[in-house]
Amino acid sequence: MTRAFTFPGITTRVVFGAGTLARTGEELARLGHSRALVLSTPNQRQDAQALAERLGDKAAGVFAGARMHTPVEVTEKAVQAFLDTGSDCVISLGGGSTTGLGKAIAVRTGADQIAIPTTYAGSEMTDILGETASGEKTTRREAAIRPEVVIYDVDLTLSLPLGLTVTSALNAIAHAMEAFYAPDRNPVIEAMCRDAMRAFQSAIPRLVQDPADREARGEALYAAWCCSTALGQVSMALHHKLAHVLGGSFDLPHAETHAILLPHTTAFNAAAVPDLLSPIAGVFGAPAGAGLWDFAKASGAPMRLADLGLAKADLPRAAAIAMKNKYWNPRPFDEAAILTLLQAAWAGTRPA
Ligand code: NAD
């Protein structure tokens, strides 16, 4: 059968390598800007300050208040700092939380963004912004949200703690897993996701042995770029919905939640589309869900939602919230099926 697909094109400029942080000024000038506000979390303030110093008069200031799930009260303060400092661009130096803040400023002010990711979460290549207001998380997709430039510098990931290295990689693998069966997938994304599975499978065990292994860091960051590109191009389904419910309504930590759910959502959907998920089974072991469970366990990932502080009594409410809005998934499901899946992830049992 002749294949049919639409490839929307990749509009973000990507600079990838080791030591590429040094090219930030050049990229800023290329965009036609000369006053950037550098963003980070409080943890990465020193790195943001060092980057601002390196940029000299091209840096308008540092805002080091980024927090997980992009609370709007933080965004309001950051927008004020953007305006007060006369900034014309934002540079987000950090993980998904910092990239999220850059996107939230951009969508409100029209600012261009340079994202410099330091985890594998994969927000940088997407047009997706999740924000929280009064304890509720909402997500939107718009062209203005997507960063103009992404600078991947392998050296910045050498300091990523091992725990976050592993959970963040599993978070990235979840983007690829859902891309493999996305109804709007295309051959470019499929090829990138296949390559990413091989790269993570090779890099993560080496990083568990030595988190400072630069070559393995390079492979893992390359894989993260592939997975982020997939997330930014095609539709996600049940896995991302469940992670969103558990993060948004039960305040579970982002990367760990993705990591724990992944083998279970993979097993659930592999029962319906085993051929589409064969690139995962081929790399991590068959069947795909069990293969990922073994890989996560061997990498020292957290395996049980119970260990993240979720009470067993919360599972029926989580399943009910996940059923609220209809969305596409390769395998049809009802509330009872979701509850069974969540119970397995809560207990951390190996999928069949
Ligand atoms: P994070 O950005 O919250 O980072 C976790 C902690 O690790 C922070 O304190 C951070 O400063 C620190 N850190 C990050 N990189 C480090 C490094 N190299 N060395 C030392 N410390 C480092 O975590 P995350 O998992 O990257 O991002 C999670 C957030 O991103 C969530 O809010 C999630 O919703 C969002 N996200 C959004 C998208 C999207 O497309 N919109 C995609 C993925 C994730």
UniProtKB/TrEMBL annotation:
Alphabetized GO MF terms: maleylacetate reductase activity
EC code(s) of this entry: 1.3.1.32
Domain Alcohol dehydrogenase iron-type/glycerol dehydrogenase GldA intervals: 12-153
Record key words, sorted: NAD, Oxidoreductase
Entry superkingdom: Bacteria
InterPro entries: ADH_Fe/GldA, ADH_Fe_C, Alcohol_dehydrogenase_Fe, MAR
Domain Fe-containing alcohol dehydrogenase-like C-terminal: 165-346
Keyword Protease applies: no
Family named by the database record: Belongs to the iron-containing alcohol dehydrogenase family.
Protein name (record): Maleylacetate reductase
